[in-house]
């Protein structure tokens, strides 16, 4: 499902820029735009919004006053020409604070932060007391329980991750980084942009690859130093 976005700004050009930036991304859609917080409140009451781009200095109600008034709010990114409100905005637990003129590079960093803080719907961590030893992952509309120690490795396949255990393989729709972030312990090691391995399952390694039994997994050049430091 695409991320549903609402843009609130009293400057048409500012709305146009954010719309243009979002149009360059996959999985994001502009559900609505409006020129003030009163209109925005009505939209939030009647539609499901995941991400709110909100100007601060607006007529009737400022962006900060608006966020304080919300009882249930989506993730919020402030977009403003003023740096003076940064501290106050972060006290409201907003996702990011973008100062106009907003470059695409800075905008993309905010989007990356949103992706990392959003809970992947196909991965459900499960807590038992203070210990977490398994997760649930969704494949074909079914939640499968996976014991973390049984995972051999996981590999990225475009927009999917294939999880390998000794008994089965599961394919879920998420990124490898998101999958890694949901694992409950530090036994997992990223050895390549496309591979994540369970360090407890490693049986051997060379300068070029990791071995898990008969399986050889390449070590990416940018990961070598960290991998070798941890495997010493």
Please outline the helices and strands.
Elements: E1 3-8, H1 12-23, E2 28-34, H2 37-46, E3 51-54, H3 63-69, E4 75-80, H4 86-90, E5 96-99, H5 104-117, E6 123-128, E7 131-139, E8 142-147, E9 151-157, E10 160-165, E11 169-173, H6 176-182, E12 188-192, E13 195-198, E14 204-205, E15 209-212, E16 215-218, H7 224-231
Structure description:
- The protein is 27% helix and 37% strand.
- It is of the alpha/beta class.
- It has 2 domains: 3-117, Rossmann fold (3-Layer(aba) Sandwich); 123-231, LytTr DNA-binding domain (OB fold (Dihydrolipoamide Acetyltransferase, E2P)).
- The strands form 4 sheets. The chain has a 5-stranded parallel beta sheet with strand order 2-1-3-4-5.
- The two termini are 43 Å apart.
Properties at a glance:
elongated; Rossmann fold; 232 residues; alpha/beta; 5-stranded antiparallel sheet; OB fold (Dihydrolipoamide Acetyltransferase, E2P)
Q: Quickly count the helices.
A: 7
Which class do the helix and strand fractions yield?
alpha/beta
Tertiary shape: elongated
How much strand content do the residues show? 35-45%
The pLDDT mean sits at 87
How would you summarize what this structure contains?
The chain has about 230 residues and is α/β, with parallel strands linked by helices. The protein contains seven helices and 16 strands.
């Amino acid at each position: 499902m695409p991320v549903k976005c609402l843009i609130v700004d009293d400057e048409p050009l500012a709305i146009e820029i954010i719309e243009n930036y979002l149009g360059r991304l996959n999985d994001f859609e502009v559900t609505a735009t409006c020129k003030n917080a009163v209109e925005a409140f009505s939209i939030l009451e009647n539609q499901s919004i995941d991400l709110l781009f909100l100007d601060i200095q607006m007529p009737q109600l400022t962006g900060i006053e608006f966020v304080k008034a919300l009882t249930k709010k989506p993730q919020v990114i402030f977009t403003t020409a003023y740096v003076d409100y940064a501290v106050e905005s972060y006290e409201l637990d907003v996702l990011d604070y973008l100062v106009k003129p907003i470059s695409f590079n800075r905008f993309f960093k905010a989007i990356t932060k949103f992706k990392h803080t959003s809970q992947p719907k196909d991965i459900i961590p499960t807590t038992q007391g203070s210990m977490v030893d398994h997760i649930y992952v969704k494949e074909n509309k079914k939640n499968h329980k996976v014991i973390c120690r049984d995972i051999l490795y996981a590999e990225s396949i475009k927009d999917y991750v294939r999880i390998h255990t000794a008994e089965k393989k599961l394919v879920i729709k998420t990124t490898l980084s998101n999958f890694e972030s949901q694992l409950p312990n530090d036994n997992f090691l990223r050895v390549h942009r496309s591979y994540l391995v369970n360090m407890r399952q490693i049986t051997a390694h060379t300068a070029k690859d990791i071995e898990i039994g008969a399986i050889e997994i390449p070590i990416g050049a940018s990961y070598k130093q960290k991998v070798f430091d941890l495997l010493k």
